[in-house]
Amino acid sequence: MSVSRRARAVRVLGVVSASAALALGTAGNALACDISEFSAEAKCDGDKGVITVTDVDPAGIPATVTVYLQNNGADAKKVGEQVVKGSREGTTITFADDWKPNAQYRIHVKAAQYVDEDIKPNLVTPATACKKEEEPPASTPPATPTPSASPSQPAEETGTPAPEPSESQSTSPAANAPAPAGDSNLAETGADSNTGIIAGIAAALVVVGGGAVFFGMRRRGANSDS
């Protein structure tokens, strides 16, 4: 083989080797970890909220995933950090966080020299919380107690003023007291005011009658002696 042919062969072999290396490099870059191979989701585990991150990198390059709770566009809290090795079927890691409805989370992925960025857009949780608020029982009006019969109380104790006595009841007890039996007729006829005069006249008549009888007897005795 001449020198020219040998040089030509070496040149062709170099071109083929370079092409193969370029192809392998391109294939390696195609199989390398990429941010598009990561996805996040907010789910419920019973009554508790969780955040899951899935890596579908077929090369299985280890990647560090960090989750941050956002507040007004800034990191308010670091929820957690885990390492994941992806697979063609997908590898999922879980971060326990009892998220609130419509909350935002920033999820950052770092994998060697391949990935160092956030999953876009930020994760927004559902509008409904995992644990449903228990509705308070309907309030029922309290039963009205039935008033029990109670003995009547005097007017002074209950505060109710006693009724005023009527005109017929306001007379003094002396007027309603029964009069003595002997004076009942006089009280009824109104003649008790003339009793003294009648008694005086009767006494005078008795005295006059007695005097007349006395003088009559003396006169009769004198006639009999003569």
TrEMBL record:
<keyword id="KW-0472">Membrane</keyword>
<keyword id="KW-0732">Signal</keyword>
<feature type="signal peptide">
    <location>
        <begin position="1"/>
        <end position="32"/>
    </location>
</feature>
<keyword id="KW-0812">Transmembrane</keyword>
<feature type="compositionally biased region" description="Low complexity">
    <location>
        <begin position="146"/>
        <end position="181"/>
    </location>
</feature>
<feature type="transmembrane region" description="Helical">
    <location>
        <begin position="197"/>
        <end position="217"/>
    </location>
</feature>
<keyword id="KW-1133">Transmembrane helix</keyword>
<protein>
    <recommendedName>
        <fullName>LPXTG cell wall anchor domain-containing protein</fullName>
    </recommendedName>
</protein>
<feature type="region of interest" description="Disordered">
    <location>
        <begin position="130"/>
        <end position="190"/>
    </location>
</feature>
